[in-house]
Design brief:
By secondary structure, the protein is mainly α. It contains 7 helices and 4 strands. A two-stranded parallel ribbon has the order 1-2. A two-stranded parallel sheet has the order 3-4. The relative contact order is 0.14.
Length: about 170
């Protein structure tokens, strides 16, 4: 879970450079040449983000980047399906503001959080990796880079405080 599209792209690039190819970025970002118009000769964050995302799409579809750039929706659908149904083929999804609530992937065991999540959002995100997936998974693991677990107890109490009323 990344705090920005730029950081998600940088994480993705680091994984690619290390030879870890079974990963993808899922965000609301749709790369467009308009994003980098007027950026000049400097290699800005906008240009890096655009190029990394475009190259990811190109590599995934094994197509020219100018063609692949128009397939963001298909890409997201494909990688989410692989992550759920073929986890050996898509081992890591780097997300920004997506899939933290309502996305069910019981085989997901680890979550790395590099975003300031709070309250209901934090509680829901933690639940993503604590779905049981057969007898070999008892719980999920959370790697908390933002020191969020101090507020997890409060989020848990807020979310469940009235859950058992009337019983």
């Amino acid at each position: 879970v990344s705090d920005s599209i730029y950081n998600a792209c940088r994480f993705y690039q680091l994984f690619q450079d290390a030879g870890f190819s079974k990963c993808a970025i899922v965000t609301s970002f749709v790369p467009s040449l308009a994003d980098i118009k007027g950026e000049g000769d400097n290699y800005t964050e906008k240009i890096q983000r655009f190029e990394i995302y475009r190259n990811m799409l190109s590599a995934y579809f094994n197509e020219d980047s100018n063609t692949a750039i128009n397939k963001v929706e298909q890409f997201e659908k494909d990688v989410k399906k692989k992550f759920v149904e073929e986890p050996a083929q898509m081992k890591l999804l780097i997300v920004v503001n997506k899939l933290l609530t309502g996305f069910d992937a019981p085989s997901a065991t680890y979550m790395y959080i590099d975003k300031n999540l709070r309250n209901h959002g934090l509680f829901q995100a933690v639940c993503r990796v604590n779905r049981l997936d057969g007898d070999d998974k008892q719980y999920g693991y959370i790697v908390d880079y933002m020191d969020l677990f101090k507020s997890l107890e409060q989020a848990f109490n807020d979310y469940t405080s009235e859950a058992l009323e009337g019983y």
